[in-house]
Amino acid sequence: MQKTSIANQQRARMQLAVVGLTATVLSLVAAACGGGAKPIATSTPTATLTTPATPTTPTAPTITPVKLSGKVEIDGSSTVFPVTEAVAEEYQKLHRDVKVTVGISGTGGGFKRFCSGETDISDASRPISAAEIEQCKKTGVEFVEIPVAYDGLSVMVNPSNTWATSMTVAELKKLWAPEAQGVITRWIQVRPDWPDQPINLYGPGTDSGTFDYFTEAITGKAKASRGDFTASEDDNVLVQGIAGDRNALGYFGYAYYIENTGKLKLVAVDGGKGPVLPTEETILSNTYQPLSRPLFIYVKKQAAERPEVKEFIRFYLTAGRPLIKQVGYIQIPSVVYDIALQRFEKAVVGSVYGPNVPTSAKLEVIFKAP
Amino acid sequence: MRQSAALSARRRGRQLWFGLNTRSVAEGAVQNLLLLASLVSIVTTVGIVAVLIFETVEFFQEVSILEFLTDRQWTPLFTQQHFGIAPLFTATVLIAVGAMTVALPIGLVTAIYLSEYAPDRLRSIVKPILEVLAGIPTIVYGYFALLFITPILRAIFPQMQTFNAASAAIVMGIMIVPYISSLSEEAMGAVPRSLREAAYALGSTKMEVATRVVVPAAASGIVAAFILGVSRAIGETMIVAIAAGQQARLSFNPLQGMETMTAYIVQVSLGDTPTGTIEFKTIFAVGMALFLMTFLLNMASRWLLRRFREVYQ
Q1: Does B313 have pLDDT greater than 50?
Q2: Which of B273, B272, B245 is closest to B259 using CA atoms?
Q3: What are the pLDDT digits (tens) for B170-205?
Q4: What sign has the CA pseudo-torsion A208, A209, A213, A216?
Q5: Partner-chain residue, chosen from A108, A241, A245, that has the shortest CB–CB distance to B272
Q6: Are A107 and A90 within 8 A, CB to CB?
Q7: Distances (CA, A) of B51 to B54, B260, B270
Q8: What is the phi-psi region of residue B295: left when phi exceeds 0, alpha when psi lies from -120 to 50, beta otherwise?
Q9: Which residue of A147, A221, B161, B176 is 20 to 30 Å from A299, comparing CA positions?
């Protein structure tokens, strides 16, 4: 009997030792893993840049003698996303220690996060609204408004759609107005010589700047749209939806058409002067009406004081110019890029748009050198 | 010899103050800790239900219950706001029914095979594979439905849309098969051998034993498995959010896209809806509807189990 008692005691001690050892090992592992998962330390504020950032050499990337590190947080429009993402990729190749993350919460969602201080840069496919300016003022977020590209908001159908080659603004309004909800459900109701087939609509969701802009341009009132369509802030979802449905119609940024030319077909929009297809020329010259629009990024002034953010914006407006064309959007006039960069360097805050300045105003006119 | 005496001093515990000793203190502490653990889950459940009820009540102060139940459109985010849950509800039910028509036959037949027919070696291979099926993340199932199943189905039905209910239902059925088969197999395993042997003794074939003796005897467990599968199907979010679409459409056509209750909650939550608005409250109203559905199903399954369970000595 005594033997078993000693054996029990020994066994108990062994078990205790094993448990203790496992616990120690696990906690060490957890500490190591947890330590590794900590966010990258913010950049060293002592790093002073002596970059020769000359706005007159658009293709030369700015050379930084000091190594940059840190995070740049960007969110907002899914329309502007392809540009910002392309710029971010190239930028991160140059500066490997900077982490740039780009989200697609939609213009509205992006501004919400921007004004609450969560993001450094907000992508926007429309100017910041009065309510959002108010919100930013409340939280003390000052911003610099930077135009980056032109977009021709495109109306698209499935490639096997042979009948809808062009539509007037009035027809688009009939199709997308709030009153059309549940009422206009077949192609023949929009134009009598179109087939009697159901229409399946795809478009950006209510957080999207594209949604705001399209509704304002077509139905006359921002956000006034029918609700019975597939709404998604992710334009790739819309591309897939239209590409797989013969009776589909949708609208989103021109860059998504350029990326998916085999899967989509453009509809020419007649803004009063005949049907116009969106191309580089028609968007730049504003003949593609009323769906040509500028795209913006908004930078938080406090964030712009960090070297990695400042460098990112400089990169965007200099080396980023050819990327805009690559992605499928249209470059704004060179002089406007230069002025925008100057305004950024001088930290000119606030929006140039307002009740007296419409979105269709010429950028060269409203963006003045500081 | 010392062993057979009273409890050793160590086990008795050292004496502390106030008549307590270390043994009773340790016992009491452990008991309280376990009570705390169970309280956490109870408090969380009560908290969730309370929040749901509170916000739903606020929602129904602005929208009438009649409109909620009878209106045939669901467009709370747009200019013409309609708050009829019917499109979301029919989408959820349609996809759940579709999933069960896939999962129930396959799951049941698998269970019968594993329980009655399979040799041990085969069972030891098939069961782990079924576990793997249960372990695949649902978002992977969602993409599988969108990118693999939909093109195959579109070859058969050319008018199928990219986002459709059928692919989501099929893939959801595949996801639920492990649940049904493992629970049914357990239920069938609980049927005593004596029943089977009696049937064999009376001259039944294996098939007759399986279908006429074992399955009816295990019926309550199988029905419970079925109801669990349905609850799973109703609450499933990722598969339908990716593959079934985001358009709230009142339709019974599985070739079209439709938005389920869970997919709607995802759509609104991912967006930019300010707290306290009516759009925000729709999240809770729909969540409450979902909760009620699964709650009623759970109640039904428990009642069924209790009522029809055959107790064997």
Answers
A1: no
A2: B245
A3: 999 999 999 999 999 999 989 999 999 999 999 999
A4: positive
A5: A108
A6: no
A7: 5, 22, 20
A8: alpha
A9: A221
Residue from B10, B79, B88 to probe the interface with A (highest A Cβ count within 10 Å) = B79
Distance between CA atoms of A303 and A175, rounded to whole angstroms? 43
Amino acid (one-letter) located at A64: T
Give SS3 for A359.
coil
Q: Any residues with CB less than 8 A from the CB of A64 and at least 6 apart, and which?
A: A49, A51, A95, A311
For residues B180 and B112, give the distance between their C-alpha atoms in angstroms, rounded to a whole number.
Answer: 11
**Which helix (DSSP H) or strand (DSSP E) does residue A5 occupy?**
helix A2-36
A300: left (phi over 0), alpha (psi -120 to 50) or beta: beta
Residue that the structure tokens 């060490």 belong to: A28
Tell me what the pLDDT averaged over chain B comes to: 89
Average pLDDT of span A318-342: 91
**What does the alpha-carbon distance between residue A347 and residue A123 come to, in Å, rounded to a whole number?**
18
The model carries a pTM of 0.75
User: What are the φ and ψ backbone dihedral angles of A311, each rounded to 5 degrees?
Assistant: -65, -35
Residues B266 and B237: beta-carbon distance below 8 Å: yes
**Residues of chain B in Cβ contact (below 8 Å) with chain A:** 1-4, 73, 75, 77-82, 146, 150, 154, 159-163, 245-249, 257, 267, 270-272
Q: Find how far residue B88's CA is from the centre of its chain.
A: 18
Of A120, A128, A66, the C-alpha closest to A310 is A120
For tokens 């639920």, name the residue: B176
The residue assigned the tokens 């330590």 is: A35
The Cα B85–Cα B248 span in angstroms is 9
User: Residue B229: is its pLDDT beyond 90?
Assistant: yes
- The secondary element (H helix, E strand) that includes residue B26 is helix B22-62
Tokens linked to A350? 């606030």
Direct distance between the N- and C-terminal alpha carbons of chain B, in angstroms, rounded to an integer: 43
d(CA B211, CA B205): 10
Report how many Cβ contacts below 8 Å link chain A to chain B. Answer: 89
Type of residue found at B83: F
Pairwise CB contact (< 8 Å): A241 & B82: no
The answer to whether the bond into B137 is cis (omega within 30° of 0) is: no
* Confidence band, pLDDT 50/70/90 cuts, at residue B36: very high
Tell me the two tokens of residue A69: 């590190």
pLDDT digits 0-9 by tens, A122-133: 999 999 999 999
Q: Is A158 helix (H, G, I), strand (E, B) or coil?
A: coil
pLDDT at A365: 86
Q: HSE (CB half, 13 Å, CA atoms) of A293?
A: 26
Residue with tokens 């953010």, as numbered in its chain: A309
- Residue appearing with tokens 């793997």: B132
Give the DSSP letter string of A18-85. HHHHHHHHHHHHHHHHHHHTSPPPPPPTT--------TT-TTSPPP-SSPP-EEEEEEE-TTTHHHHH
Per the listing, tokens 């759970």 go with B298
**pLDDT recorded at residue A34:** 43
> B146 to chain A: which residues are within 8 Å by CB?
240
Average pLDDT over residues A310-324: 93
pLDDT band at residue A25, thresholds of 50, 70 and 90? Answer: low
C-alpha dist (Å) from residue B58 to A41, B270, B277: 44, 22, 10
A5 interfaces chain B, CB cutoff of 8 Å: yes
pLDDT band at B148 (very low <50, low <70, confident <90, very high): very high
Task: Give yes or no for a contact between A235 and A78, defined as CB atoms under 8 angstroms apart.
Answer: yes
